[in-house]
Amino acid sequence: MTLTVTGLGLTRGSRQLFAGLSLQVEAGEALVLRGANGSGKTSLLRVLAGLTGADVGELRWNGEKWTVLCAGQRATALYLGHTDALKDELTAAENLAEALAFDGVTLPPHEISSALDEAGLAGRHQLATRRLSQGQKRRIGLARLKLSRKPLWLLDEPTNALDAEGVKLFSGVVESHLKRGGLACIATHLSLAINAPIHEMSLGDAA
Amino acid sequence: MAGTFAQPMNSPERGLWITASRDVKIGLRSRAELVQAIMFLVIVVSLFPLAVGPDEALLKRIAPGVVWVAALLSVLLTLPRLFAADYADGTLEQMLLSPYPLPVIAAGKMLAHWLMSGLPLALISPLLGLQFGLNASELLVLMVSLMLGTPVLSMIGAIGAALTLGVRGGSILMALLVLPLYVPVLIFGAGAVEQSMASIDTTANLSLLGALLLLGALSAPFAIAAALKISLD
Question: ipTM, 2 decimals?
């Protein structure tokens, strides 16, 4: 599996976020995006996910061209953005089950429970999500990553609001994903302790 | 390795089901919002006999129009929430990125919206019609016309809600956008009840409502999908 990006350019208003951006990520590799606030990390991830159309350039997955939000892209890419994408009205377990259902994964309740336990939410499965702390909400996202079967992860500041132990947990989840042959693009300002090939890319100054 | 990331089969029916059941589940958790639309309808319709006075003939004549306009406004009241909450917390984005086709998800959201707005309105309408002295067959036509018409209101409304998503002052803009498009539904719906009051065959108007329903069911999901893509870009 390979993600290839060639000649990508995106302008927002009068600001050019990036131009002529090319990159390649292979199976088992992670790409870490660095850059100051507003340098276009989020925009790049949204283009890769298909939420934003680039002005120029193309995305290819295993050589197959992706149009914006094409079926292949939606089946492949898992995007976690700034929002936790959780419903306050639902419990932690329900939120995880719903998110996975929309990823096309149906799991028995005990697998959902054990993933929540492993993410450090033991005893809080049936709590309404609005009662969870910001970090605990992020951990539901971690549990979702663990259970998802999508090969390409696009993560925007995934460690926000996570404590040190949560960051360690996150690194472990990403590492096992890469070991399985998955791909990840991660925008973060932390240096992640992941034992796998990691490429770094700086946005902002290059463009 | 292909096995690790093997994608399960994603049938469109399943996409429709998970979207609709999710929205209904969330809707039932916030029951206050659910009751609001029904209460609005009941109160608005009950104001007319109080304002017009106990003139039975007059009340009966205005009944179809009053109930239909009130139902239309009460559906309009529920529309801003249709996508806005999911848009704000990021779940709408995740639905867009799901392997299920977007029109299927849009159809699921419309279905859930109708189940929680139009359907209860249609079911309660015979009670409201009684206040205006409608007889049994007229009450039946009123309910059937609302059953056929309110899904169309949900469909047209969902297109408007998707187009005005994230726009400041969007709900007024949406009302301006959607209300003119509601006119045919209103004419056929209220027309059917009027015809039944004049003992004329109502099939023509009800068939036209049914035709609007089919047309909406086939085209609205695609329009909503396109509008959502634009709104989230």
Answer: 0.90
